[in-house]
Amino acid sequence: MSTRTFNVNANLVASSTPLAPPMSDRDREPKQAIPQTTSFQNGKGRRIWIDIDNSPHVPFFLPIIEELKKRGVEIDLTARDMYQVCQLIEFFNLPCKVIGRHYGKNKFLKVLGTFLRAVQLVPTAARFRPSLALSHGSRAQILVCKALRIPTVMMHDYEHSAKTGFIEPDWVFTPDVIPTNAMNKRPERTLKYPGLKEDVYVPGFVPNPQILNELGISRDEILVTLRPPATEAHYHNPESEELFAEAIRFLSENRKVRAIVLPRNAKQGVDLRREWAELIARGCLMVPTSPVDGLNLIWFSDLVISGGGTMNREATALGVPVYSVFRGKMGAVDKYLAAKGRLTLIENIKDVRTKIVLARWNRPSQPENSDRPALRTIIDHIFMILEGKCPPTFRPAL
Asked: Is the pTM of this model over 0.90?
């Protein structure tokens, strides 16, 4: 059993005002009412178990945890040792018990690993006795909660990885751009929030230019942040790797460009350093050996090229030019961003050299702050479920 406990004082990042204008009604399907004010304040005596299943979920849950704690809710945290989850837990000083690990890209081992981790989680969940369990895609948590009769909320922002098989959560939260019936066999149990998942935590971001000095980046250089494809994900398409490699070759041809690759795990980092050793030796490519504040790096980049979802959306939330080399099934969120011109899709080798613009980004002095109520809506939904009240979106599909 892989179990580790982080027992340190939490120093959580606050979320205040969102970054970009909300989506218009015509962009939402189906249209649903969104709470305009937070009316639920008292969470005293309530316990919520949050299971962190992947790296992007660490910053995502920070402001949610803080808001729940402000209202008196007790929070119990568990996490899976996957990619950079443990490093991020330490980076953000989260009190958390790490249980279980990642079992690679083999589908049989993935399923077996999910059931094994569920068994490992049972004693901890039984001790927590939570009023509600919350995650962003933890199938193991769903299995445990069904056995222990704990109500569950699962959040998702990519419908092609959302299916949990024969067992489904009691509630599903999704961005409002995703069709209701894409996530759950019971669409009346799907609740929406405005904007994107990244709108929950990006508003709390404060830039720190010291990162450029720490990485040895000159302000005269064009800084490009790269994120490799998730090669171990079940939705991975090898075409993404070909486009990613071509993007690195394209960047290496421009002497003014400095590229930084943020690997998803230690093995991927080793592979990148071996494959691109010559470019690393020349100084035009860097693969950090320690955790980097990805949001801060994105802000000080002139463009982002990514084979995944979260970093693409973080860049769009900050207004940084972003190019996606993801070639798996396109989700509704990415389709929306591409249609709005906030995300450029790189679909073939030719696109790498014809669509990617290597230019300085006209960066504002600070990230834009405007009201997007993603966090508030999620908190309202959680409290309505805790209090047994029917959310405004809880209506049978017509």
From this structure: no
